[in-house]
Amino acid sequence: MLSYQHAYHAGNLADLQKHALLAWMLDYLTAKPKPLSYIETHAGRGLYDLSGPEATKTGEAQAGITRALSEGWLPDDHPLRHALDQIHRMHGPDAYPGSPLIARYFLRPEDNAHLAELHPTEHEALTQVGGFAHLHRQDGFAMAQAVCPPTPRRGLLLIDPSYEVKADYDAIPRQIGQIARKWNVGVIALWYPLLVDNRHAPMIRALQQAHPDALTSEVGFPPARPGHGMVGSGMFVINPPYGLQDEARRIEKLFKRL
């Protein structure tokens, strides 16, 4: 369960959907002069090198964020574009931010952040760029259960596991249900892969039944390589900010071109 390393997949098409919606939500939430909490259960290392051997081996970033930027999927005024521009100025044109550094771009001094990462190597790398947040080397769900409801109560939780443990699909509806009951005003965002064996479907049905007002947004794309099981990406958002559905539908239309 500690073998997954996102460096091989950073900037891929799934990241594009997830990070575009995450940046949009954070931009919306921080537009109001009220402090917020940002919580992330599976933070990863926070910063990736798209010229590194991991990214070049798979070519997923080339088919993802590189193509999206060259084809104008992200307008100049898009919140994710703003975050990427800053990362490129600070770390070079081949740098790509994980969700912690996307959040860092939007968070203000009065905001509070908690990042969990259990993998020892990834956590060590996260300490190099995650000084703006409370860092937790522990199971992300345990951290979220412990800090929710956070202070400030206004805020966003991103759940983005690797799904290497198949039991996650059964456990996530229960985990989210517990958190949502304790933190009924929080924006709770779950990323999940769309797989050829459809193992994600019962999880999403359970979540939709329990949270009928939540937003479900899914996009499809070709497998990264022959035999690869992921053929799409989904975001499930409880308490979606106003206007998020329009941005989600815009992104879905872009993916239909693939």
Task: Explain what this protein looks like in three dimensions.
The protein has 258 residues and is of the alpha/beta class. The protein has a single domain (6-255), classed as Rossmann fold, CATH 3.40.50.150. The protein is built from ten helices and nine strands. The strands form two sheets. A seven-stranded mixed β-sheet has the order 5-4-1-6-7-9-8, sandwiched between helices. The chain has a two-stranded antiparallel sheet with strand order 2-3. Helix 1 (13-30) packs antiparallel against helix 10 and helix 8 (167-182) runs parallel beside helix 9 (201-210). The longest helix is centred in the N-terminal third of the chain and has 18 residues, at 13-30. It is globular, with a radius of gyration of 17 Å. It starts with 12 loop residues before the first helix and ends with a helix. The relative contact order is 0.17. Monomer. Specifically methylates the adenine in position 2030 of 23S rRNA.
How large a portion of the residues is in β-strands, by DSSP E?
A: 15-25%
Largest sheet properties: 7 strands, mixed
The overall strand count is 9
Architecture, CATH level 2? 3-Layer(aba) Sandwich
Shape from CA axes? globular
Number of domains: 1
Helix content: 40-55%
